[in-house]
Design a protein that fits this description.
It is built from 3 helices and no strands. It has helices spanning 4-9, 20-30, 49-54. The longest helix is centred in the middle third of the chain and has 11 residues, at 20-30.
Length: 61
């Protein structure tokens, strides 16, 4: 989870194929935003061949 104002402060998401999250986090760190690892599971996702196919399969890995 992020604070909306922190994401807006760094200009939001920008299109970098497969690197959107990494690029956002890097800019947020450079702006002094704090990051923490939350130990609680917030979302459960079940993956499989169909999910990988919808997302581009091994080309994305």
């Amino acid at each position: 989870m992020f604070r909306k104002e922190d994401i807006l402060k760094v200009g939001g998401y920008q299109h970098f194929y497969l690197l959107e999250d990494y690029w956002l986090w890097t800019r947020m760190i450079n702006e002094g935003c704090k990051f923490y690892n939350i130990q609680n599971i917030l979302v459960n996702v079940r993956g499989g061949a169909a999910m990988a196919a919808r997302r581009g399969g091994m080309e994305v890995c």
